[in-house]
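Appendix B, record 7
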Amino acid sequence: MAVWQGKTNRLDQSRLEIPVTHKAFMRVPGIIFCSVPMEQGLFADNAPEQVVNVASLPGIIKASFAMPDIHWGYGFPIGGVAAFDEKDGIISPGGVGYDINCGVRLLRSNLVAHDVVKHVEKIIGSIYDNVPSGVGSEGKIRLERQELQKVLVEGSAWAVKKGYGYQEDLQFIEDYGQMTGANPDAVSKEAIKRGAPQLGTLGAGNHFLEIQEVTEIYDEKTAGTFGLFVGQMVVLIHTGSRGLGHQVATDYIDVMQNAAKMYGIELPDRQLACAPFMSPEGQRYFGAMAASANYAWANRQMITHWVRESFERSLGMSQEKLGLGIVYDIAHNIAKREMHVGRKMVVHRKGATRAFPAGFPGLPEAYRETGHPVLVPGDMGRYSFVMVGTKKGAEEVFASCCHGAGRVLSRTQAIKNYRPGQVIEKLRQNGTYLKAANSETVSEEAPGAYKDVAMVVDVLDGAGIARKIAKMRPLGVVKG
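Structure tokens (predicted):
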């Protein structure tokens, strides 16, 4: 990977600007949230050039943004945020990514972690057996095309109707787990074929299930609204739309290559393939992407049901006693139609998450006075955070926030640097039990392959874009 050597201006302790004069094709500047200590890692990765390239796209509003967890992606950087005018702007599959609605769900509990630690191995083993994981994993149910099309429209509501969870779960999911505008007819037969056997599976790579302990609370009142307290056991689930979403991205990147040429859109990088949002191609992709997002929400809903079952079996406790309710579920690879500063726009968040602050339209009633939780997982050896968006964040960066730690080593580099046995032993010494589908994943996901997520969230907290609410550490991990 090339070292980026372009010009930047430091605006303050939290932000770097790539001036609009950096390249002739830039329509807006690039803004990267990055502390001074994080600069070296930023420039070692050529991702800033992707920030520059995104700034060339028609209809882009204000700036091409990147969060502190920025790293190299397909076309758009991972950690990228870009908003486009709904009438005059574009939509790009590269601005969403291959794993459409890869996202995170946090479950609270009535349990104190201290009382659960001795059972962690048993619970993790039960979850591992109950939730299919690993490369190409297939689920426990089989759906005909007609039924899967219902999933693509109804999302989490479909899963609840089938007995996977409770009606109240839907109140604590972004878009209530059912994104409008889904068009199952825009999803190819190949995508349906790939997705049909995978509903209710965790997958592989950086997807995970973690039993965690809340170790710090930064805002007692807001944490109380979220149902979080120090010493509490919680569960974090990270997965997406599996092969279905990947195939949708593949299909429409091809479509958009041709569309960009047809509409006369000049691209500095062909991976930025796009079409005007209001064009037939743009609308068709948006419908397929929304359908994929709904599949992912149904997927996480089914996994939640099986996690609850695993706790019940392992601990011999009823769901009422366990209290495994949803704190929130949020996407971090998606394009959304939203209204900001009185303007309709399509906000692309790729490796970035929505962060609606208190009083913002679209919040669930329970979080009207706080804003919804923003979930920021770290690596499996350190910690994760819960944050909340701010009014300043809504005004400056379209109510967006970081999504995680961000990689510093490629998967290939991580495999070279970390032996699976050493990773597992180090985790054990730190009080974390790991169960993984294969040894290669253990190396790829070694804590050292990631940035320190505390540095990432501190940048945004310091910038006033989002506030830290709680910190959790992993006790037990399932990796696909």
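Remarks on this record: Residues 4 and 46 are 5 Å apart (CA to CA). DSSP finds 16 helices and 19 strands in the chain.
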